[in-house]
Backbone:
């Protein structure tokens, strides 16, 4: 599972007793129960470190993820891409590592101008243009378009380029690279409304939930269903 910065921050604020985060309390109860039973994990990532900036939520983040990470971290995205290119497949160990630090943020410099790409044509043409740029910028060889990271990021960029009314946010680059890194591996993702819509509409994920109260509660129900299913299987 992956809880992005937005989701994890709302959980942390609930744990700190800040108002208007009650739905995240319901979610966290369900999530924590399953994590303690070994049904899922949610490792922190360098993207969390980048967006936290060492702020007041950091101590709470540390405690939260200590309970649900299984002692693992998401690898830096560059390392995930390299391992995908070497393996030409999708294996969870390419995403996760026991080495990580709250002092090492994600480095997005190699893709700093990604959102300045001027894509044109149909969705598929825009996807191909974006994939070609990403592969060239990262020095990826033949077959790069088929790498999960490149395929996911290029489709998200094409989708974004067709949203003329979308106002650019400083966090957009972080969100897109994060999603391209973790979405191919995660069973479920808690994220913001825009990224949830993009992942679902593009068929990149079936279990993506936004921070709207009804979505948060739906995520909690989904987790409880997963627990119930696991319990039935253990009894059969």
Residues:
């Amino acid at each position: 599972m992956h809880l992005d910065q937005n989701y994890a921050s709302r959980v942390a604020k609930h744990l700190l007793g800040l108002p208007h985060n009650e739905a995240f309390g319901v979610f966290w109860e369900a999530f924590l129960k399953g994590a303690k039973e070994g049904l899922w994990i949610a490792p922190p990532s360098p993207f969390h470190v980048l967006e936290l900036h060492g702020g007041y939520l950091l101590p709470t983040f540390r405690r939260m993820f200590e309970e649900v990470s299984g002692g693992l971290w998401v690898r830096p995205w560059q390392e995930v891409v390299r391992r995908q290119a070497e393996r030409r497949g999708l294996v969870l160990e390419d995403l996760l590592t026991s080495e990580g630090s709250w002092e090492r943020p994600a480095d997005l410099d190699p893709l700093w101008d990604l959102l300045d790409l001027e894509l044109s044509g149909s969705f598929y043409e825009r996807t191909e243009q974006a994939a070609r740029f990403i592969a060239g910028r990262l020095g990826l060889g033949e077959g790069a378009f088929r790498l999960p990271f490149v395929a996911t990021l290029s489709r998200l960029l094409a989708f974004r380029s067709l949203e003329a009314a979308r106002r650019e946010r400083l966090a957009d680059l972080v969100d897109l690279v994060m999603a391209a890194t973790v979405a191919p591996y995660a069973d479920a993702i808690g994220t913001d409304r825009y990224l949830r819509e993009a992942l679902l509409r593009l068929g990149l994920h079936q279990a993506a939930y936004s921070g709207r109260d009804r979505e948060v509660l739906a995520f909690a129900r989904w987790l409880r269903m997963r627990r119930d299913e696991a319990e039935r299987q253990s009894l059969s």
